[in-house]
Amino acid sequence: MASLCQLVSRGFCSSAARNTVIKHVTVIGAGLMGAGITQVAACTGHTVSLVDVSEDVLKKSVQGMEGSLRRVAKKKFADKHEAAEEFIQKVLQNVSVSTDVASAVAASHLVLEAIVENLKVKRDLFARLDKLAPEHTIFASNTSSLPITDIASSTSRQDRFGGLHFFNPVPMMKLVEVVGTSATSRETFDSLLNFSRSLGKTAVSCKDTPGFIVNRLLVPYMMEAVRLYERGDGSKEDIDIAMKLGAGYPMGPFELGDYVGLDTIKFIIDGWSAYNPDNPLFAQSELLNKLVADGKLGRKTGEGFYKYK
Ligand code: CAA
Ligand code: NAD
């Protein structure tokens, strides 16, 4: 017999629940993405609990948000220093940080995960969260490349689970990919779309396919640039200049790789090549593997394809 999900048109499950208006968000993972998402949510009037396993990361994350907010305030308020300071403090008042995930999720409309790109680690986290968060709480993952279905199946709330894929740097990038699985309810999907719009972002709807839209196109392009360089067909610098001036990209592929994090790129490629070893677009790169093995992960470690001060 066909399941209810299969019977519902547009690929969404029906549910009697009404759309959840998302006001309080818990963001798990205070790295590059978690900090950016927290900042943007707090800027748009949401209250945010930011959780990480490390107090030190949380401290650095708040410092990073403050730095980024100063850049935003500089544009918004020009020379009005008092107004800029007031804006920054008001935004930061919307954020609380914690290493205690249980208390953070207790009153959340949405729990958004932005931890390491590893299926088992994400599944373990969500299985635990499923027992801690209220029934109505929606779960979402910011995964770059993993199937949302595989993450969601670690919980008993697959109808209240979707993907919310943000882009780095979150305060500047205008897009969010909203991902629905075959089990995501229409109400959940709409709540996630509305939440993305409430952040001032443009949302696109995506199916739960590898890399959704952007990364399915962007990551093979970046890997192709690495292969071009490995073959000796162009220097990193020339390839970066060529793509900026010849194709209008704001960053060249090596600059972008360092910006995103080479570990993240490697996690994505490792996952896709394991699922689909015959696809040459997903082939491994010796250079990328070596850089990651040497801890040269890009800007965040001070060296990747390039060196940073
Ligand atoms: N926070 C706040 N403001 C920022 C900012 C940040 N993190 N970064 C840039 N800005 C603003 C500031 O106002 C800044 O001016 P100041 O330096 O005076 O503060 C202004 O933008 C200009 O910034 P920059 O001079 O640093 O350089 P830029 O004009 O090149 O803009 C950029 C920076 C927005 C990052 C741009 O280079 C860009 O769009 N790069 C491509 C990014 C991209 O492709 N991201 C997607 C990656 S893929 C991904 O995220 C998905 C995945 O799953 C891996
Ligand atoms: P990151 O390494 O900067 O941060 C990850 C953070 O998660 C770390 O601070 C770590 O301490 C924390 N963490 C790990 N396990 C945890 C747990 N169980 N509970 C709480 N915190 C935990 O990584 P990132 O670049 O911010 O990426 C996070 C996610 O976002 C990944 O899934 C990645 O694929 C995705 N993503 C990354 C980018 C990018 O450009 N870097 C863009 C879009 C999506």
Order of helices and strands: HEHEHHEHEHEHEEHEHHHHH
Hetero groups in this structure are: acetoacetyl-coenzyme A, nicotinamide-adenine-dinucleotide
Report the major sheet: 8 strands, mixed
Name the shape in a single word.
Answer: globular
Describe this structure in words.
There is one protein chain. The chain is an alpha/beta fold and 309 residues long. It is built from 13 helices and eight strands. The protein has an eight-stranded mixed beta sheet with strand order 3-2-1-4-5-6-7-8. Strand 1 (24-28), helix 2 and strand 2 form a beta-alpha-beta unit. The longest helix is centred in the N-terminal third of the chain and has 23 residues, at 55-77. The N and C termini lie far apart (62 Å).
Descriptive key words:
8-stranded mixed β-sheet; binds acetoacetyl-coenzyme A; globular; single chain; 13% strand; binds nicotinamide-adenine-dinucleotide; 309 residues; alpha/beta; 13 helices
